[in-house]
Specification:
Layout: H1 2-19, H2 24-31
Length: 32
C-alpha cells in the first residue's frame, strides 16, 4: 500500500541520515 511504501521510505531516509551523521532536525531544515 501507499502507507507502507511511505513508511519504508521514511525509515530508509532516516537510516541514511544517521549513517552520514546528519540529525533529523538538520535534514528537515534543509528541506524547508
Amino acid at each position: 500500500t501507499i502507507h507502507f511504501k511511505q513508511q519504508f521510505n521514511d525509515e530508509s531516509i532516516l537510516s541514511i541520515i544517521k549513517s552520514i551523521g546528519i540529525t533529523e532536525e538538520d535534514f528537515k531544515v534543509s528541506l524547508a
